[in-house]
Amino acid sequence: MTVERPAYLPGDPPPASEIERMIRVDHAGEYGAVRIYEGQLAVMRRGRARDEIRRMAEQEARHLARFNELMQSHRVRPTALQPLWHMAGYALGAATALLGEDAAMACTVAVEEVIDEHYQDQADRLGDADPALKHTILAFRDDELAHRARAIEHGALDTLGYDVISGVIKAGSRLAIWLSTRL
Predict the structure, then answer these.
(1) What is the pTM of this model?
(2) Is there a smaller number of Cβ atoms within 10 Å at the N or the C end of the chain?
């Protein structure tokens, strides 16, 4: 089943502009993910989850490298909020790691659930407009879902206050997406 692209109304940004915004926000998201994992790894010097977090961080770094390439090839500027995401991502990673390994993994689950929805929505909106970008987005979505699964295996759902932590992180992630798309 193919999802039809939404109609563009007068005043809506043109499709090419939408692709630029997708690349900008995805770059910002992958940058934020790298910073979250850097914050977690700075705090977690050892433990059963550290190696898994390191592996996820390496994969996010590859995602970021690909979006860096797309930014250059499509001549897209980064979000104006990148300095904020630099600090906020690291702080979120460090804070969740300070709460313990389970909380660090709960952070991954929350972020990846939002990214799953975000990447699927982007793929649906792209339709056939940019098959290469759609392929990249869907491949990265699969990676993010695998991160979510591994985080659950490492105890994310056992976190004391999981629902609160998850809710706050999801709200912040959705706000970051909304802002980075526009600024």
Answers:
(1) 0.83
(2) N
- The phi-psi region of residue 11 (left if phi > 0; otherwise alpha if psi is between -120 and 50; otherwise beta) is left
DSSP state, residue 166: H
CATH of segment(s) 15-182 = 1.20.1260
Q: Alpha-carbon distance 100 to 40, whole Å?
A: 10
Going by C-alpha positions, the residue among 132, 140, 130 that lies closest to residue 18 is 130
* Domain boundary assignment for the chain: 15-182
For residue 127, give both structure tokens.
């339709």
Q: Which residues of the chain have pLDDT under 70?
A: 1-16
Biggest CA-to-CA distance, the chain: 55
